[in-house]
Design a protein that fits this description.
It is a single chain. By secondary structure, this protein is an alpha/beta fold. The chain contains 9 helices and 5 strands. The protein has a 5-stranded parallel beta sheet, sandwiched between helices. Helix 4 (90-102) packs across helix 5 (117-123) and helix 6 packs parallel to helix 7. The protein is globular. The chain starts with a helix and ends in an 11-residue tail after the last helix.
Length: 216
């Protein structure tokens, strides 16, 4: 029936949430407000930077709203699309944003798809990019403080807009702590022949037993 077809279409919409999903989103937002009391944001507005944006057909509406919001706050935007609901391949948008960040055309990148997962996997294929799929504010803080994430991946179908606004604020305001985290971040790009040999030895032993963090 037409009613059944409309219900089926609605269940796959990036803009419609079930009552259960909406309740879960509201609960997370309430938690985010509580977490906000302990998130250590610098005083004042984040410095204006150039931010690369990209999204597929399941994320372009959030991407466009993010672009407008960031422009209002003084940031420069490089928008790689897409701009409508025509089906497209999300890896191409993840690659474009990531390359813009890795090459220095943009200081940060933001990518959006339905779940944030696929487009984040694509972005992380580009050397020099640390893309974090984030669904709540505390993860955004840790992605910056501990992982020096330079690209943020968001899920239009899973994360409410109010939560996205909070995530953006934290992602753009939070500094990298460095210190012990710097050495760990460096290892993310060190899967050389020597590293592979070290990893294969761990497989032979059945355990990783040589990963204690070096003391400064």
């Amino acid at each position: 029936s037409q009613r059944a077809l409309r219900a089926q279409a609605s269940s796959h919409s990036s803009c419609v949430q079930s009552p259960r999903a909406k309740a879960a989103s509201n609960a997370l937002l309430a938690q985010a407000i509580f977490i906000g009391a302990r998130v250590r944001l610098p005083k004042g507005e984040p410095s204006a930077v150039t931010i690369a944006l990209g999204a597929d057909h399941a994320g372009f509406e959030y991407k466009d709203r993010i672009a407008a919001l960031l422009r209002e706050r003084g940031h420069s935007i490089i928008d790689f699309g897409t701009h409508d609901a025509t089906p497209v391949d999300y890896p191409q948008y993840g690659f474009a944003v990531a390359e813009a960040v890795a090459s220095g055309q943009a200081e940060r990148g933001i990518v959006v798809c339905g779940s944030s997962i696929g487009i984040a996997i694509a972005a992380n294929k580009v050397p020099g990019v640390r893309c974090a799929p984030v669904a709540e504010p505390y993860a955004a803080e840790l992605a910056r403080r501990h992982n020096n994430a330079n690209v943020l991946a968001l899920a239009e179908r899973l994360t409410g807009w109010e939560m996205v606004e909070r995530i953006l604020e934290i992602f753009l305001s939070t500094p990298f702590e460095g210190g012990r985290h710097a050495a760990r971040v460096d290892q993310l790009f060190e899967f050389s022949d020597d590293q592979r040999t070290r990893t294969l030895r761990a497989l032979e032993r059945g355990a990783v037993d040589d990963a204690r963090t070096a003391q400064p």
